Amino acid sequence: MGLKEEFEEYAEKAKTLPENTSNENKLILYGLYKQATVGAVNTSRPGVFYQRDRAKWDAWKAVEAKSKDDAMSDYITKVAKEQHDQVQP
């Protein structure tokens, strides 16, 4: 299985992460996903009245220097870790 296929598989798995997954981890996953699928940030930073969108934009911007392949690989690793952590007591 190639990296892109594995990434797509883990993107589906990420949809089933428990609701108690921390916002910080959700934002990390969001940033990595956007970097892997879109590349560098291509929008303006949302204004202060849009805190949720701003946090998501910041998470994406934080990983902007990663290549798409590196972002895919990091995303896979992060989803796998989140799944493992949810299984552990």
UniProtKB/TrEMBL annotation:
GO MF: fatty-acyl-CoA binding
GO BP of this protein: fatty acid metabolic process
InterPro entries reported in the protein's UniProt record: Acyl-CoA-binding_prot_CS (IPR022408), Acyl-CoA-binding_protein (IPR000582)
Domain ACB residue range list: 3-88
Pfam families associated with the record: ACBP
Family: Belongs to the ACBP family.
Protein name: Acyl-CoA-binding domain-containing protein 1
Species of the source: Cucurbita argyrosperma subsp. sororia
Species lineage: Eukaryota, Viridiplantae, Streptophyta, Embryophyta, Tracheophyta
